[in-house]
Design brief:
Layout (H helix, E strand, L loop, with lengths): L3 H13 L2 H8 L3 H15 L4 E4 L2 E4 L1 H27 L6 E6 L5 H14 L4 E6 L2 H9 L5 E5 L11 E15 L12 H5 L3 E4 H5 L11 E4 L2 H8 L4 E5 H9 L3 E4 L8 E9 L7 H17 L2
Parallel strand pairs: 3-4, 3-5, 7-8
Antiparallel strand pairs: 1-2, 5-11, 6-9, 6-10, 6-11
Helix pairs in contact: 1-2, 1-3, 1-4, 2-3, 5-11
Keywords: DNA-binding, Transcription, Transcription regulation
InterPro entries: LysR_HTH_N (IPR000847), LysR_subst-bd (IPR005119), WH-like_DNA-bd_sf (IPR036388), WH_DNA-bd_sf (IPR036390)
Pfam families: HTH_1, LysR_substrate
């Protein structure tokens, strides 16, 4: 009988196109993956892959077996998650991921509420991009993640999801910018100024108001605000920009051609391995309540 490890090795090679890449995908070396696939081929009596250079091309038999192999692996993962959740181990540490665009004030409120409800719980906050966060949720290395939406791509990941609201974005300039005192600013005027683009927004595929001919990518939010004080413009979440507006560092500008502000939806994702755990269920409730206060 074929083992789950052999089936997982077959899947990894089929999906990546080589033994080396397949090994990296499942955390095994190339030799181990190849040995498992060869053992399957010997049991079946037919080849599953044809080697062409560095590529492993699936045979028609591999194509026919792939969907069933995928289902077997999915069922095994689901069983593992259910068994782990049923164990009801006491959580002493909680891992929450958030995107750089997520409201900082909202996250602070969530932290305070969790601390009051579970004073013994160690809370680890990690800023992550969507794909790395999903991978940790699927493997049970993280419990909750708050991320921007991206169409229907969420359906392809083995995580739970709850829509929690949306954040509004607007265009901002430094207080000394020639655009700061204008009643209306045209899109044409924005094209002639340097646009400071948040790397996090790009990774989230939030392609809002990308109109400038000269765009500078910035990964650090504090650096972005510092650069904005001397030149250019940027698009920011209104919630995260408010403290800088209140301090007089930046100014929101009204764009003539925009009839309403850009809105980005946010989703609370959670690990299916912990969906029945009392602590995680309470934390999900806390996050949803905070989102109702801070998001539209």
């Amino acid at each position: 009988m074929m083992s789950l490890e052999q089936i997982q090795s077959f899947l990894s090679v089929y999906e990546t196109g080589s033994y080396s890449a397949g090994g990296r995908k499942i955390g095994k070396d190339r030799t181990t993956v190849r040995e498992r696939v060869v053992a399957m081929e010997e049991m079946i009596g037919e080849p599953l892959f044809i080697i062409e250079g560095k590529k492993a091309k699936p045979t028609s038999l591999a194509d026919a077996l792939y969907k069933r192999a995928w289902n077997i692996n999915k069922q095994a993962l689901d069983f593992n998650q259910a068994a782990f959740a049923a164990n009801h181990v006491q959580l002493t540490e909680l891992v929450i991921h958030h995107h750089a665009l997520t409201s900082i004030d909202m996250l602070a409120d969530v932290d305070r509420a969790i601390g009051e409800r579970f004073p013994y719980l160690k809370i680890n906050w990690f800023q992550r991009h969507r794909e790395e966060s999903f991978a940790d949720l699927e493997k049970g290395r993280a419990h909750i993640s708050i991320m921007p939406t991206i169409g229907n791509a969420l359906l392809k990941r083995d995580v739970g999801a709850i829509n929690v609201g949306a954040e509004r974005f607007a265009v901002y300039v430094g207080k000394h910018s020639p655009l700061a005192n204008k009643e209306k600013v045209s899109v044409n005027e924005l094209t002639t100024e340097v646009q400071l683009v948040s790397e996090s927004a790009q990774h989230a595929h939030l392609a809002y108001i990308n109109v400038a001919s000269q765009q500078h990518m910035v990964s650090n939010s504090e650096l972005l605000m510092s650069l904005l004080s001397s030149r250019g413009w940027t698009a920011l979440s209104r919630v995260n920009a408010q403290k800088y507006v209140d301090s007089g560092e930046i100014v929101e500008v009204d764009i003539e051609e925009l009839t309403q502000s850009y809105v980005a939806g946010f989703v609370l994702f959670y690990s299916l391995a912990f969906e029945n755990h009392d602590v995680v269920k309470n934390v999900i409730r806390i996050v949803r309540e905070a989102c109702e206060t801070h998001l539209s």
